[in-house]
Amino acid sequence: MKLTRYTDYALRVIIYLGSRDDGLSSIAEISALYDISRNNLMKVVQDLAHWGYIEAIRGRSGGIRLGRPAEDINLGTLIRHTEKNQNLVDCTQCVIAPACGLPGVLTEATRAFFAVLDKYTLADLLVQRHHFKDLLIFSDQ
Q1: How many CB atoms are located within 10 Å of the residue 59 CB?
Q2: How far apart are CA 35 and CA 40, in angstroms?
Q3: For residue 66, what are the β-bridge partners?
Q4: CA distances from 118 to 65, 107, 115, 122, 126 (A)
Q5: With b meaning 16 or more CB within 10 Å and e meaning fewer, what string describes 25-36?
Q6: What gap in Å lies between CA 20 and CA 136, rounded to an integer?
Q7: Mean pLDDT value across the chain
């Protein structure tokens, strides 16, 4: 399964925020770091805030940060939120669909894909958190 760019951006945002020790981050700094369109990132951040993955604080001294502990952010659940179409192939219009076994195989493959993702949280991705400081430029440094 190929994840959409939207999911890619969502994962980058939560990984970045999870790698921070504390404080607020800005969409501008994340956009610059990953070389992502600020407008596209704003949509992702808005959705992540709506779902409670991040907290968005408005105002001059505002910013974004994780909305819950990294251990409580399940990757499978997050990706189910960001991936609107989870079908690998749309077989509904295919003339051989009634006799074909492919839709069942693809459904099983998708379930297996999400079963693996369901085993992991953001905290699992941040096991080597101490290395992030060397790789990411935080605005407060």
Answers
A1: 6
A2: 11
A3: 54
A4: 23, 16, 5, 11, 16
A5: bebebbbebeeb
A6: 10
A7: 89
Percent helix, strand and coil across the chain, each rounded to 5? 50, 10, 40
SS3 for 121? strand
What pTM was computed for the model? 0.86
CB 74 within 8 A of CB 43: no
List strand residue ranges (DSSP E) for 2-50, in order.
Answer: none
Q: Which helix (H) or strand (E) holds 66?
A: strand 63-66
Tokens 């060397």 correspond to 134
Number of helical (H) and strand (E) elements in the chain, helices listed first: 7, 2
Residue 62's nearest CA partner among 108, 34, 107, 27 is 27
Tens digits of residue pLDDT in 52-68? 999 999 988 899 999 99
Backbone φ, ψ for residue 11 (5° rounding): -65, -40
Q: Which residues contact 37 (CB under 8 A, 6 or more apart)?
A: 31
